[in-house]
Amino acid sequence: MSPAYGFDRYTAHGGPVRGLALSPDGSTLVTASFDYSAVVWGTQALEEQATLLGHEAAVNTAAFSADGSLLATAGDDGSVLLWTKEQIGNDSAEPVVLQGHKGKVVDLAFASDGTMLASASWDGSIGIWPLAGTGLDESQSARFITGHEGPVNAVQFSDNNEYLYSAGYDGQIRYWRLQSDEYLRSPVRNGWGVSVFMVDEKADLVAYGGSDGQMVIQRLSDDKIHLKLGEERVPVLSLFYDDKDGLIGFGNADGRVVLIDTTDWSVVRDFNAANGPIWSLVIMPGAESIIVAGLDDYITKWPIYEFPPEFLERPGPARRFHPTKDIGNGERQFARKCSVCHTLQVDGRRRAGPTLFGVFGRQAGTLKGYPYSDALINSTIVWNEVTIDRLFKDGPDVVTPGTKMPIQRMKNAQDRQDLVRFLQSATKTP
Known about the structure:
By secondary structure, this protein is mainly beta. It has six helices and 29 strands. 10% of the residues lie in helices and 40% in strands.
């Protein structure tokens, strides 16, 4: 625990944590990470219980079925993986793989009766997957609903499971009849992209956050605004609704967390919980603490009522790849450009990419034990001063087309030279 801030930090990942999912009974937390894995935690002591592997790219989101019998995960590979309750605690489990999306999947929702799973994708579609018992109902075909103009960011079933809500880049929360996949209306037209939302039909409530930085809570029936606040042009990235305790939590791209009491629309908490974006947050059972996930390898647990009493001027812990200490430019460039996906150690602590230890003189796609893309496996590139410089000058899409490497370039020749020199020294084999 940090005496300066009063938070607890936990890690089992080798990359940023993108999503959080709390089981219906509150006993299990699942973290979805950029390192291609999902980790299962017991919530009582936040102890790692299992690591779920199966995605071929960053895992963005996870969701439990209403009875806790199924877990779904989804990621940048466009796949949705379905895990049974027994598989959730098994490191070697082989999930059912649901394929059909042509872009990353960023949100999931189960129907309350367990008959369907919905997925939101940046390919502009909503996947509807029929379920039966503890898995996919293969007697029925999956289908895809289209209509949003651009990426779909979030989905939620209606209480009776006959309708579906969805939110997208087009600034709308749309309402669909599932029997016919017919678009009926848009309860929200924001004008800016809606990234997260929730609907409580019984409470006549809809809450959402968007790319304009606004956090909005309003009536579902007539659009009356209960509360609207935010920071201009700081996107809202996460939302969690605790219906038992009447709390709504928002997280934005600057690390800010705002907790709202729905009984009187008062702000319970407003503080900086992280250095960088908060991609996901959950309010823990009993509403004594929240857990946030963002641009580092950790999840961070903050008390809700004990600390801090006001908006913190300085955020929480520094990100490992945005170093604050006085270091050389080459190491700084590695931290900013490479450390999210790669480590320098021989053991190669889990990351989205392979360890760079011994990379100079190594042919691309040949490190044993790492699941390379076919493009790298078939590559003839040998990593050296010239090829690494070119990788960052021209970009992976030019140098290694078809690989999983994120597209990034370094225009400054001195920065590239300093990075190469640092890597030569830091990755040297004995």
